[in-house]
Every structure is written in structure tokens, then in C-alpha cells.
Amino acid sequence: MRKGFLPVLASALVAGAVALSGCTVVPIGQEAKYTGEVTFDAKSQSKSLWKKVENQVTPKAVDIGQLLTAGDTSGLTKDMTINKYNGKNLTTSKYAAGNSVVYAVKGTGTVTEINAKVANKSASSKGTMTVQVDGYAGSKKVVINVGPVITDTSLRDYLDISLNDYKDTTQWSQVSQAINDYSQKNVIDKADIASLKGKKISFVGAFTAQTGMTSVSITPVEIKAE
Asked: How confident is the model at residue 26 (pLDDT cuts 50, 70, 90)?
């Protein structure tokens, strides 16, 4: 062993000990106690978020038959329709190729098809229920999302909240999922979807209209068999 090695090693150990003496070992899961940053949990906010849905979506819901009829004439993403039917334009740039507009809607109709695992185990997890809407004779297909997987963000997007209210897009996505999960558990699952084919229902919900769309996909706030 070289003569100079031991003193160098000792110095390194002393320096390391000094450096470590100024550090705090933080147990896993307790980071917030030391950093002040609380882990975001959208699920814990689901009830308050749903209250917003009830207070903002339901009161502004317009008759879907009237809306779609007007949309067939003037377009669902045109200012005339947006202003008349309480639409919320999600497109911020006037140079965008197409618009996205979210509407709160209500209506009645007859369930003509159920394409969901509750009725058919081989169906897609993104289940839907097709409705022939009363008062609408146009060509657009109307479906209600019934899960168990719902990726639509319409309920979240209609609220008076935005991405700027959250840290990042991950939290923003979690907000939508928390709202959709609440809808699944407290609206969809309680409606006994598998039994509704051929029956008249009433519903409240929201959907996002896009330029040139041929179908409407509603995430529900309320579903009731009549």
C-alpha cells in the first residue's frame, strides 16, 4: 500500500462524515413534512368536484333534441349555436383548423342498443348506450358513456376550472378521472344499464362537439328510467 493512501482515505472519510452531518434522512412517505408539498389526490376531492358538476352542468343543460337540430343547420361549433345553447368553447386559437365546444344537455329517449360489459362480456370496456332522442330526427348518433372505462373529459371541461388551476397535465387528467369515476359509481352503476334496452329514459350530461362530428358521446350526470 502506498504511504500516502491512508491519510487521503482518512481525509475522505472525515469529509464525508461532515457532509452527512448536515443532512436529514427523510423516511419514505413523509416527504411532505419536510418539503411542505402535499401529494395531490383528486379522488379525495371527488365529492366537491361533483357538487360543482351538479351546480354548473345541471342548471345549464339544454334540450339535446333542439340543440342537435340547430346544429344540423348552423353547426355545433359555430358562435350562433354556442351562444344560444350555453356552449363553452374550448378552442383558444382563432387559427385552429377546428373547434371543440362542450355542451350541457338533457333529454328523453328510447334506449335502442347497449354495447357494454354489463350486457355483453365481450363488449368494449368503453361501454356505450345508444339512445333515440325524442324530438330529434337528424342523422347524428347519440350515445351515453356507461363504462366501466370513461375517457371523455366533457364534465370536467364544462366547469369553471382550468388547467391553470393545477400543477400540471397529470393533475388535470386526474380531476377528470375522479369526476368520471364518481359518475360511474353513483349514476351509471345505480341505473341498472343492462335492463334499459327498449325503455324510455331521461338523462342529463355533457358532451364535446367537434367540427364535422357525426355522433354525440354524453357522459351522464343523471340517468332515470321512465
From this structure: low
Q: In whole angstroms, what is the distance from residue 201 CA to residue 40 CA?
A: 37
| pLDDT category of residue 8 using cuts at 50, 70 and 90 | very low
At 200, is the pLDDT very low, low, confident or very high (cuts 50, 70, 90)?
Answer: very high
DSSP structure class, residue 198? T
Query: Which regions of the chain does DSSP assign to beta strands (E)?
Result: 62-63, 88-89, 100-115, 126-133, 141-148, 200-210, 215-225
Strand partners, 111: 131
Whether the CB-CB separation of 132 and 109 falls below 8 Å is answered with yes
How many of the other CB atoms lie within 10 Å of CB of 139?
9
Q: Which three cell numbers stand for residue 49?
A: 368536484
pTM (predicted TM-score): 0.81
Are 105 and 218 contacting, i.e. CB atoms less than 8 angstroms apart?
yes
